[in-house]
Write a structure and sequence with these properties.
Aminopeptidase, about 30% helix, binds coenzyme A, alpha+beta, 2 domains, 12-stranded mixed β-sheet, single chain
């Protein structure tokens, strides 16, 4: 097993990793567009910033790359968790490699004070679920992947008025100093998004976390945009965020959308997301698709996404176990 260093990897290292991921994804996620080499590189160089530190291990047998594990170590209230994604090359499955890789990770995760492991995006009824259940994991949640193809969508769907009594504000990168503390507070509203029995809780938002995350986006060259809803009293009552990665110019990734409880049911979620779509696609003509993921039980968000032009392409499960 080796720790994969995305800053030092050679072309041959990327080729091997990509061959494994592309083969596995073709088999495991046929509903999703094929994995490209750029996507493999982007996934490691510009990871999901808000999920915490990301480490990748590769497993080799006789010099052949046979599996890889991506581990995310979230912070700010989720320090007990490790989120693990293991893929074994389709040619060498059912030989104990996945099990051995997971067991080899365990002491390293304990060293980082993690006490629970979760795996996300397993195929319903697929090999990952059988494998994980055999190892003592329980299925605790499920989430949908939704994709919008811009060539097919009627952009008129995004002409949505802002509800009376509110206005929208937006920024790229850092939140304005005068708003950052109200913004950090509003971000806690994501805690109401259904997560089943997953232990991945909404992070403890603070100005410090907002600023740390903004710095991580900057250091990875990820463009992060935010639209917030502001009440007539000047309070930040909702937000939505979207990211563009340097190696994936044709894709935008939707992040959190949340509205404070007292302001729900007025159409703010739809208005903020529409404004974000109009804004982000207007000055990025190369964008072809937008991705988003949300809990299967989050019927309101799923319905808003359908109204905007997203299609549900996949449902994946979440498994969880004490370490
Ligand atoms: C899940 C995965 C990692 C398993 O890797 P693997 O090396 O093939 O698994 P192992 O050989 O260690 O399997 C151990 C046991 O798990 C169970 N298992 C594994 N694959 C299975 C399948 N396709 N169907 C039923 N049970 C399965 C079996 O009990 C197996 O023991 P057995 O072969 O003696 O019957 C691999 O199928 C994979 O990469 N899947 C796609 C990604 C994924 O779902 N990852 C898991 C979540 S992080």
């Amino acid at each position: 097993m080796r720790l994969f260093d995305a800053d030092r990897a050679s072309d041959a290292d990327w080729d091997a990793l990509h061959e494994l991921q592309a083969s596995a994804y073709r088999l495991d996620y046929p509903e999703r567009p094929p994995m490209t080499r750029q996507e493999t590189i982007s996934g490691l160089r510009a990871p999901q910033v808000q999920a915490g530190e990301q480490l990748t291990w590769t497993a080799h047998r006789n010099d052949r790359l046979v599996a890889r594990a991506i581990v995310m170590l979230p912070s700010d209230g989720n320090e007990h968790l490790a989120l693990v994604r293991i893929h074994v090359h389709p040619d060498v499955r059912r030989q104990g490699i996945g099990t051995e890789l997971l067991h080899a990770l365990e002491p390293m995760l304990r060293d980082r004070d993690r006490t629970r492991v979760e795996g996300w995006n397993l195929t319903l009824g697929g090999p990952g679920e059988s494998w994980a259940q055999g190892l003592g994991f329980r299925i605790v949640h499920s989430a949908v992947l939704q994709i919008m193809e811009l060539s097919e969508v009627d952009r008129g769907r995004w002409s949505v008025a802002v509800p009376p009594g509110y206005r929208l504000m937006r920024w790229v990168g850092a939140a304005p100093e005068s708003f950052v503390s109200a913004y950090a507070k509003a971000r806690e509203a994501i805690g109401d998004a259904p997560l089943g029995e997953s232990e991945f809780g909404a992070p403890d938002w603070s100005v410090d976390r907002v600023r740390r995350i903004e710095a991580s986006y900057r250091s990875r060259d990820i463009e992060h945009r935010t639209v917030v809803a502001v009440s007539s009293g000047g309070e930040v009552v909702g937000l939505t965020e979207m990211e563009a990665r340097p190696l994936l110019p044709e894709r935008l990734q939707q992040g959190d959308t949340a509205v404070l409880p007292a302001h729900r049911g007025h159409g703010l979620g739809l208005a903020m997301k529409s404004a974000m779509l109009r804004w982000f696609t207007a000055d990025r003509p190369g964008v072809a698709h937008i991705w988003t993921a949300t809990g299967t039980g989050n019927t309101h968000m799923i319905a808003v996404n359908h109204r905007l032009g997203f299609a549900t392409v996949r449902t994946g499960s979440v498994v969880s176990r004490e370490l």
